[in-house]
Amino acid sequence: MKLPSLLLLTALFRLARSQSFIDAISAFPQLSSFASFLNNNTTYAATLLNVTRSQTILVPSNSAFTEYRNVTGHSIESLGPDTVQRILQYHTLNATLKSGDLAGGAAAQRGVVVGTQLVDKRYNDRGKWGNSNIKSPGQVVYISPASAGKTRRSLELATRQGSATTTVGTGAGSSTTMNIIDGVWDGGIFQIVDHFLTLPTNCTDTMDDIGLKYLTTALNVVNETDEWNSFQGVTCLAPTTDIAQGTDASSLTTVLSSHTIRGPQYTTVMQDGQTFLSDANTTITVKIEKDGTVWFNDAKVVRGNVVANNGVIHVLDKHLDLDLQANE
Ligand SMILES: *[C@@H]1O[C@H](CO)[C@@H](O)[C@H](O)[C@H]1NC(C)=O
Ligand SMILES: *[C@@H]1O[C@H](CO)[C@@H](O)[C@H](O)[C@H]1NC(C)=O
Ligand SMILES: *[C@@H]1O[C@H](CO)[C@@H](O)[C@H](O)[C@H]1NC(C)=O
Ligand SMILES: *[C@@H]1O[C@H](CO)[C@@H](O)[C@H](O)[C@H]1NC(C)=O
Ligand SMILES: *[C@@H]1O[C@H](CO)[C@@H](O)[C@H](O)[C@H]1NC(C)=O
Ligand SMILES: *[C@@H]1O[C@H](CO)[C@@H](O)[C@H](O)[C@H]1NC(C)=O
Ligand SMILES: *[C@@H]1O[C@H](CO)[C@@H](O)[C@H](O)[C@H]1NC(C)=O
Ligand SMILES: *[C@@H]1O[C@H](CO)[C@@H](O)[C@H](O)[C@H]1NC(C)=O
């Protein structure tokens, strides 16, 4: 008799929690599509809200639904239950993330990287979590500062008016605006996003997506494309200058591996003066300026923390000079 009643209690608890979430988002007219989406199919509500710790759900707005349909010509549901569930898991941040966590300090200058519930290897093949400087079993999203130099102001505005926005970097180099409203439900917090998050793709596809075609070409030249995509947990430093220029094929391999660090290393938690060993056994030294700008040796990060299924890509303004990173 005890077991059924326990099961019943758990089911009731789940129901109450999911009702709490649906009630909470129903207070926002711009979230009515998502409420309808969950009401239409309780399986999705069960997936989304099946968590024990306090979470932050990034709720897609009505325009996220319309835009998705506009751009792809089909509804999000038509992706099929497996993919939809993965997307919902990616929308669930495994932490309580409020406006206060994004304001001030390193978070305001360099943004934050947060783990999600997305653990499927296809989208999260980052190796042992101990290899990364962000300990998360699930794939991550990168939340960049609202806008350089103005972060604090717009976040203060958020606290006052509940309308500040910031950017969430997700898979395939895509991003979405996040409206920080600090919505509350029984299982945590919710914030609003204007796009569905894009599931992460492999390293070279992601490089192509963010316009680094010459780098994927260079990897093809030395036949390392599959190797890079099969690294479980990697940091790719990706210069915007053509890495292959003036380099013969034999040294291209060394140049490429001197831009590779094992384990996904996110700039948001790096320390000034910290060093990493590249795959070519050269030393890469991190410099962090007062305004939050990050450098690797003499190259500046122009776009950090682009999420790939097997790691992270930091785009640099130039390639690392091998002579400058000789072994200590
Ligand atoms: C929910 O189902 C109704 C009726 O089938 C449909 O009109 C509506 O578009 C669905 N909502 C979403 C968000 O899919
Ligand atoms: C909820 O999560 C547990 C453990 O993570 C899992 O075993 C169960 O199948 C999940 N239930 C649903 C409805 O997704
Ligand atoms: C979707 O397309 C319609 C018609 O082209 C347009 O009026 C609307 O603004 C679009 N909505 C979004 C969110 O892109
Ligand atoms: C609800 O989602 C499940 C998979 O999670 C799917 O099998 C089922 O067909 C869906 N039901 C409706 C009414 O869309
Ligand atoms: C969520 O965070 C908790 C506590 O840090 C951790 O134990 C758990 O494995 C995490 N889950 C995922 C899917 O990352
Ligand atoms: C390219 O590398 C793969 C292993 O990643 C290997 O199997 C293949 O033979 C190589 N091709 C050439 C042309 O060297
Ligand atoms: C991933 O990488 C391989 C090359 O290693 C490529 O052929 C493949 O199409 C890529 N994309 C996906 C989604 O697997
Ligand atoms: C780097 O050093 C390690 C350990 O000393 C060694 O096993 C590895 O072969 C070296 N790699 C290169 C590219 O020299």
UniProtKB/TrEMBL annotation:
Residues 1-18 form the signal peptide. InterPro entries: Adhesion/Biosynth-related (IPR050904), FAS1_dom_sf (IPR036378), FAS1_domain (IPR000782). The keyword Transcription does not apply. Residues 18-320 form the FAS1 domain. Keywords: Signal. This is FAS1 domain-containing protein.
